[in-house]
Amino acid sequence: MDYKKVTENATPEETAAMPRGIPLLKDELDIVIPTIRNLDFLEMWRPFFEPYHLIIVQDGDPSKTINVPDGFDYELYNRNDINRILGPKASCISFKDSACRCFGYMVSKKKYIFTIDDDCFVGKDPSGKPINALEQHIKNILSPSTPLFFNTLYDPFREGADFVRGYPFSLREGVPTAVSHGLWLNIPDYDAPTQLVKPRERNTRYVDMVLTIPKGTLFPMCGMNLAFDRHLIGPAMYFGLMGDGQPIGRYDDMWAGWCTKVICDHLNLGVKTGLPYIFHSKASNPFVNLKKEYKGIFWQEDIIPFFQAVTLPKECTTVQECYIELSKQVKEKLSKVDPYFDKLADAMVTWIEAWDELNPAGAAVANGKA
Ligand SMILES: O=c1ccn([C@@H]2O[C@H](COP(=O)(O)OP(=O)(O)O[C@H]3OC[C@H](O)[C@H](O)[C@H]3O)[C@@H](O)[C@H]2O)c(=O)[nH]1
Ligand SMILES: [Mn+2]
Questions:
Q1: I need a surface site. Which of 56, 110, 347, 348 has the fewest CB within 10 A?
Q2: CB of 98 closer than 6 A to ligand 1?
Q3: Ligand 2 (ion): which residues have CB within 5 A?
């Protein structure tokens, strides 16, 4: 294994030379990209992404033109579109923060979502082979999770692995996988304080592992390289009120991850983390990030115990019902931390109302079994 390989991203030529497998879930999966930049990074991903439909959420100035490389099938929404489509409910979609990406989840009509940032390139595994991150996410999502009992040989459904001795046979069917959380080579997703003290740290460690996050355990979900089953857990993937006019930023995916995990635990759905890796190319400014994050850094000392203590009634059998119940508990128990959570709890309700308005069929169908 030549671990030096993982310190470089794959070139478009290297990726283009990869055998083009059958694009799994081609008509059942949308790729959602939040952007304030151009989308040249798609050239790197072309062999892997071209067969899929893209939903581009253009943040910031709607009068700016975002160029999408030829050959991609896409729909693009800017702030004017979001306001036009949602009307007053657009207030729940963040502006000037990558949290805006959740609008793409709402307007999609597909069963699966893969979301990626525009500074994430194709990574290489230790053998130097370009990593088809989308293909690995699909494998993760289409195979069961094992949140109820930890398998020490990691994901038992991967080629060359299985359940180990002592693993109860009654649990070996696993549960449906709702989320696949990928990782990052090169620039790791560190918070601002860590970025400031370790400005030159790069992640060169490629760990060949996929793990189910155990039931009852929270995790810091990063939205940079993430896939999920929209029909199973979509309404929980609200990325909160961040950015312009808000006291906090860069906690969009964290909030969504904590809400999603407690609901997955309640509905017996699984969350996996590990492979695939992408190559994260740009470190955002740690000083700007510190300004966005600092309230979150001390609020989360109250937020995490809140989510750890959350219980959802057995009558909540759909994601929407769980999410509305969660919003009530946020309003009741977190508003004393800061009035922001009162506003956020209301926005959570607006999000579900908007979701059900744009996805009427979803409003009736139970998303998972409690
Ligand atoms: O106001 C904005 C800023 C950025 N975007 C788009 O969001 C993606 C992430 O932006 P960037 O790579 O500059 O930030 P990072 O610090 O690397 O992002 C991480 O932390 C914040 C989020 O949680 C994010 O998911 C993490 O990856 C990128 O596509 C920008 O174009 C935006 O839409 N609006
Ligand atoms: Mn980035």
A1: 110
A2: yes
A3: 117, 119, 282
- Ligand 1 site, residue 250, Cβ cutoff 6 A: yes
**Model pLDDT, residue 370:** 35
Tokens standing for 34?
């939040």
58 Cβ closer than 6 Å to some ligand 1 atom: no
pLDDT averaged over 10-residue windows placed end to end, the chain, 370 residues: 75 84 92 95 96 98 96 97 98 97 98 98 96 98 98 95 98 98 97 96 97 98 98 98 96 98 98 98 91 96 98 98 98 97 98 97 44
DSSP sequence for 304-343 = HHHHHH----TT--SHHHHHHHHHHHHHHHTTTT-THHHH
Q: Which residues pair with 145 in a beta bridge?
A: 175
* Domain extents in the chain: 3-363
Please state, in angstroms and rounded to a whole number, the distance separating the CA atoms of residues 186 and 257.
Answer: 23
- The residue whose CA is least distant from atom 27 of ligand 1 is 224
* pLDDT on residue 282: 84
What residues contact residue 104 under an 8 Å CB cut-off, 6+ apart?
A: 30, 32, 33, 34, 55, 56, 57, 77, 113, 115
Nearest-atom number in ligand 1 for the CA of 101 is 33
Say which amino acid occupies 298.
F
Distance 147 CA to ligand 1 centre (A): 30
Ligand nearest to the CA of 222: 1
The pLDDT score that the predictor gives to residue 1 is 53
Question: E-strand spans in 163-213?
Answer: 177-186, 210-212
Task: Write b or e for each residue in 151-168: b if 16 or more Cβ atoms lie within 10 A of its Cβ, otherwise e.
Answer: beebbbbbeeeebeeebe
Binding site membership of 59 for ligand 1 (Cβ less than 6 Å): yes
CATH architecture of 3-363: Alpha-Beta Complex (3.90)
Tell the residue nearest (CA) to atom 26 of ligand 1.
224
Q: Token pair for residue 369?
A: 């079994």
Q: How many CB atoms lie within 10 A of CB 38?
A: 14
